[in-house]
């Protein structure tokens, strides 16, 4: 009988509180959110500058087109086309490089390919064009 009573008494499972794990998950999520917010704050400033530059360049191109019987070069160096008659100087992207320019029957295309100057990417490496939802003067 003593053997029976010993085998029927199973050891109790240890019940640990999930609170430490919840706290760790919350802390990690908070750190990730803060880091992502810090990166997002820089990008809008750069995007705002890029699109302000696009507006300036597009305005100069509009004046160029008015002086050239409604035509724009298909592509080329913006400095050669616009300075000094239409702009004092063509702005550079936030990383010190000229903006990419092309035009066709469908309109003008201005772009910056971000910090790494390669197509695609996110954050500082994100592409920006005059067709990504911001003001467009030329079509």
Secondary structure blueprint with pairings:
Elements: H1 2-8, H2 19-67, H3 78-82, E1 100-104, E2 107-112, E3 128-129
Antiparallel strand pairs: 1-2, 2-3
The structural class is mainly alpha
Shape verdict: rod-shaped
Q: Strand order across the biggest sheet?
A: 1-2-3
**Biggest sheet overview:** 3 strands, antiparallel
Give a nutshell description of this structure:
The protein is mostly helical and 139 residues long. It is built from three helices and three strands, in the order αααβββ. Strand 1 and strand 2 form a beta hairpin.
Describe the structure in your own words.
The protein is built from 3 helices and 3 strands; from the N terminus they run αααβββ. The chain is mostly helical. A hairpin with a 2-residue loop joins β1 and β2. It is rod-shaped and about 100 Å long.
Notable characteristics:
single chain, 139 residues, mainly alpha, three-stranded antiparallel β-sheet, 3 helices, 3 strands
